[in-house]
Amino acid sequence: MFNKALEIDSNSAYSYLNKGIVLRQLGKFQEAIELYDRALEINPKDAETYQNKGIALYDLGKLEQAIQMFDEALEINPRQKQSNIYKGKNSRFYFRNYTRKIWKI
User: Fold this and answer.
1) How many CB atoms lie within 10 A of CB 67?
2) For residues 47 and 90, what is the distance between their CA atoms, to the nearest angstrom?
3) Which residues contact 43 (CB under 8 A, 6 or more apart)?
4) Residue 80: which region, alpha, beta or left (left: phi > 0; alpha: psi -120 to 50)?
5) What would the mean pLDDT of 67-89 be, rounded to a whole number?
6) For the chain, what is the HEC assignment?
7) Residue 3's pLDDT is what?
8) What's the rounded Cα separation, in Å, for the pair 91 and 11?
9) pLDDT tens, 4-42?
């Protein structure tokens, strides 16, 4: 479906975003990130795309990059609840790992 939409309009950020969401849900995180990047080239002010890219990066374990994407999303739209949720998950992960390093757990 999204392939057809992109054939019709290859400058549809919405189509790239939604195809990326589907790929992310299928576990194809890197492919999804590439589509999010393309969507952001077309529309660099779309908070939802930054948020979804952040989730894909989070799923890949690239937590610092994920936080940057969530920050971008929140800067554009402070009401992006999911970005705040994922930032919180990242913070807990970092704190837990930091604590383990200190205490050598």
Assistant:
1) 19
2) 19
3) 13, 49
4) beta
5) 80
6) CHHHHHHHCCCCHHHHHHHHHHHHHCCCHHHHHHHHHHHHHHCCCCHHHHHHHHHHHHHCCCHHHHHHHHHHHHHHCCCCHHHHHHHHHHHHHHHHHHHHHHHCC
7) 57
8) 35
9) 544 555 788 999 999 999 999 999 999 999 999 999 999
Structure-token pair, residue 65: 């990059």
Assigned token pair, 24: 């992310």
* Residues whose CB is less than 8 angstroms from the CB of residue 22 and which lie 6 or more positions away in sequence, other chains included: 2
**Location of structure tokens 């757990």:** 105
Cβ-in-10-Å burial (0-12, 13-18, 19+) of 81 comes to exposed
Secondary structure class of 15 (helix, strand, coil): helix
Amino acid at site 93: F
End-to-end Cα spacing for the chain: 49
